Structure formats: C-alpha cells, structure tokens
Amino acid sequence: WTRNECVEENIAISMNFSRRMLVLLPVLPWAN
After folding, report:
1. Could you give the CA distance from residue 4 to residue 13 in angstroms, rounded to a whole number?
2. Which end is more exposed in the chain, N or C (fewer Cβ atoms within 10 Å of the end residue's Cβ)?
3. What are the backbone angles phi and psi of residue 4, rounded to the nearest 5°?
4. Using CA atoms, how far apart are residues 3 and 21, in angstroms rounded to an integer?
5. pTM confidence score
6. Per-residue 3-state assignment (H helix, E strand, C coil) for the chain
C-alpha cells in the first residue's frame, strides 16, 4: 500500500461510518 491509498481507504471508511450514523440518528430517540 502506498500512503495515498491508505488515506483514501480511511476516507472511504469514515464516509461509510458517518453515513451509517446519519441513518441511525433519527432512530436513536425511539430506542430510548
């Protein structure tokens, strides 16, 4: 892996994570 690929991979992972969090956010108040 070059350093650039590592950075792109991290960006992709954090994008997926934030997208998942955005999906979960409206659900959280109901979970309580």
Report:
1. 14
2. C
3. -65, -40
4. 27
5. 0.50
6. CCHHHHHHHHHHHHHHHHHHHHHHCCCHHHHC
